[in-house]
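Chapter review. Work through the record for Hsp70 family protein before attempting the end-of-chapter questions.
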Amino acid sequence: MPLLKDTTLGIDFGTSNSAMAVRQGAGLARMIALEGSAHTLPTALFFNAEDHRTHFGRDAVGQYLAGTEGRLMRSLKSLLGSALLQDKTAVHNKMVSYQDIISLFLRMLVQKARDELGGMPARVVMGRPVHFVDGDADRDQQAEDALRQAALDAGFAEVSFQLEPIAAALDYEQRIAHESLVLVVDIGGGTSDFTVVRLGPERMARAERGSDVLATTGVHVGGTDFDRRLSLDLLMPLLGFRHTGPTGREVPSRVFFDLSTWHLIQWLYSPRALRDAQNLRTDYSDARLHARLMRVLHERLGHRMANTVEQAKIAASLADAEAPMPLDWIEAGLGAAVTPEGLAQFLLQPLEQVVACAQECVQLAGLGVQGLDAIYLTGGSSALRPLRQALKAAFPDTPQVEGDLFGGVAAGLAVSGR
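Structure tokens for Hsp70 family protein:
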């Protein structure tokens, strides 16, 4: 296929969702449809054990929820910077590393780009969080190197990186009429990233924009952490979390934390993990709770529980009303619910970390609370009502502007490649 010399492809490979945008010449960035007409794609793969096909995105999640025999994998980005990335697992009767599985997902994106553009773009810019790994520069660099290698293995000839909040800022800049000091808030599935940046129509044409970026910060807390907190507080007690056994001690909790963490769920289905869970039986006073746990693990229902939590979180926030979490597919009548008040309460601690990181970014930029013209929100988890309320409390007089929550980073990455 031909090399498209004046074309930049922006790839937002996200923990929960991914998107791509393309910019040709001096034109505007446009999104690329990834699944039907949808411009975003859940970062999910399903390895179908019945026909040995690999499914992606909504199709992958749908196959899993329909009960098709196979394995679902989500939140693979969370493994970058971890030793688990090089661990191998059986996929379609082959042993492959989790980095290889990331490459497989990116290879699908390569094909989507080729089909859309009729060739390979000369420039590929991938987004990255401010920190893949908090407080460890070496592991952070290893994470970027691993993602670059996965992209090269997928078929891209050359890859550069841009910080995701800066990409979001460049996308927002396309739509403002006057110079502004903006705090970009990018709350994704795995990380929360911030940048204070000076934006404006007259600045867009500058080749060097480094002086416009006043500060960047990030913390490894995002939407999947919110899901984990809700799961531990509302669903895992139904399987024995915090249950007191016959010796007066609580059931060991590691299995519940792993079962509430998207990218760790698949490890609980191994023979060793199943044996360890079965051996917990003597730690339970209530055999029914242990039976529920073992059913979830034997029937590989962990991702279904995680999906139930995620959907209830979104519903409670958007509707500002109680959202049910039915688990009747585990046991008749089993379930829980989350209220808007409960959502704010359960997410209080992680949201405090997120807001503190935003405040640090503003302080590093040398600004006070009154120094900002706007807060620009992007990333799917920035839609959560408790998050917006927490930011409003911290920055009471700063207007919040909602961007393209799922496509803004990809569009900004395409613009940044000029």
